[in-house]
Amino acid sequence: MFRWSTDEVEPHERFDYWREVRSKGLFGVTAELERERRTDFSGEFSLRQLGGAGLVELKASQYRVERSSSDIAYAPGDSICVYQQLGSGGWFGGLRGGEFSIANGSFATSHTDLPYRTAPLGDGGFHLRILKIPVSALPTQDKRVRELVPRTFGDPTLAPLLSACFADLGEADGALDATSLVQALAHLALIERGILRPGSRRGQAALRTARHSQARRLIAHHLQNPDLAPAMVADQLGVSVRHLHMLFEAAEKSFSQTVTDERLKQSRRLMREAPERLIADIATSCGFESLATYYRVFNAAYGMAPGDFRARGSEGH
């Protein structure tokens, strides 16, 4: 992962460096800010290469951005971007389809090589994630992919799926996982824009991947509940219990195995972070129905009792 912050540059040079090196050189955009406000500018970003795509997280104080025809000629991208708005919101303009705003927690998509202007709404500045996926990495080569002007996602049912995929992508620890998540995000964007049918083979694969990610997120959210069951998660996911089990059958672990593994991992985190906390209290807080069940399951998984794990100060053994 590559990280960079304006803290590495003298205050009076920060915006000029950001504008010339980071904005134009890395993102291919023109950045503008009134001269009298430049000494107060701050920004940071990270870049990770995952599954054939680039995942950027960017935070910065207020300034204006334009990707003009000359910027595109200088730095063509030929990629589709999926944006996750994390800050106070943003404005997009200079588009063939007019202007729009994107609220906190919302998503948008576009092709890189179409002109636009953008600025943050409110005083919070920019905070967003951008997944940049080369068109060459997409299985579909539909020419409409290159006509995707910036636009928010209009289907509210896709937002939790996109959010779960973005969260899992940020935590991906394997190339296979990252690739499937990138493809799912790309295909969800194409479903939203009418280029890919949800019922197509690729559309169904994207929805399965995204629903599995969301199901795992729902499990993690409800770990403390000892009554956590497939019916509860399926209901929140909006699918049948049979469909939920099929999502996990296609993955490495079943629903019940995933719940148990997540509870065990949570208990290990709590033992490391709160060494003074009673093991019985940790077991209860992670949703185990009894201390005896917790000891049995923990020993089966790690070959030692929870107390021995804590005594060794293990980081994962």
UniProtKB/TrEMBL annotation:
Lineage of the organism: Bacteria, Pseudomonadati, Pseudomonadota, Alphaproteobacteria, Hyphomicrobiales
Transmembrane helix keyword on record: no
Keyword Transcription annotated: yes
Domain HTH araC/xylS-type: 213-312
Any GO molecular function: DNA-binding transcription factor activity
Protein keywords: DNA-binding, Transcription, Transcription regulation
Classification via Pfam families: HTH_18
Domain of life: Bacteria
Name under which the protein is recorded: AraC family transcriptional regulator
